[in-house]
Amino acid sequence: MMSTHNQRRIRLPLAAASIVLLSACASPAPDGVPCTILQQHGVCVAVPVHDDAHEDEAKALAPAPEGTGYLYITRPYAQQRSTKAQVFVDGVLLAELGPKTFARIKLRPGAHTVKLTADKIDAVSISVDLQSAVFLEYQIAEHVFSTVAGIKAVGRQRAKETIQPLDLVVEKVE
Question: Which residues lie across from 150 on neighbouring strands?
Fold first, then answer.
């Protein structure tokens, strides 16, 4: 009889603590957005994104207006969910990527240097020769004792497939 009473005394506070913990986990951080990665629900860092109309046009890989080209940069994976990556082109900050997002940046044709930076992660850069469109893929890979960023050029077909589930970020206007 005594042990049953003690078990109830322990169960009630344990249940209350569990409810508080679960409700805290279910609420996204003020600067976060709900995201699902590999069937796990979590919170990813929030970045400004476009409405569906702009996003659909970008995902169709429509040609840029005459005299310009588009630089597409995807961040298709969700390692480092709470980390924004800043996109610089020729030294100018033009966009921020969160996990599972992409940027479409209108530029003049020619040679450009693209650099991506993120907190506590080494910056990466790549030179591109933009004519009509260039497609880049950015990834932050988590290893046992380190986190490493990488950027690479990809083909149009790979970009088109990768972009479909991603959100289009808002380009910064200078």
Answer: 139
Report field, pTM of the whole predicted structure over 0.85: no
* CA-closest candidate to residue 63, choices 96, 106, 9: 106
Q: What is the pLDDT of residues 21-48, one digit of tens each?
A: 433 333 334 577 776 666 667 777 777 6
Residues sharing a CB contact under 8 Å with residue 114, sequence separation 6 or more, in sequence order: 71, 73, 87, 88, 89, 125, 126, 127, 128, 136, 151
Torsion angle of C-alpha atoms 152, 163, 27, 145, degrees rounded to 10: -20
Give the SS3 label for residue 133. Answer: strand
Task: Collapse the DSSP code of 67 into the 3-class scheme (helix H, G, I; strand E, B; otherwise coil) and give the result.
Answer: coil
DSSP state letter for 91? T
Residue with tokens 């800043």: 86
- Sheet-wide strand order for 147-153: 147-153, 133-142, 69-75, 101-107, 167-168
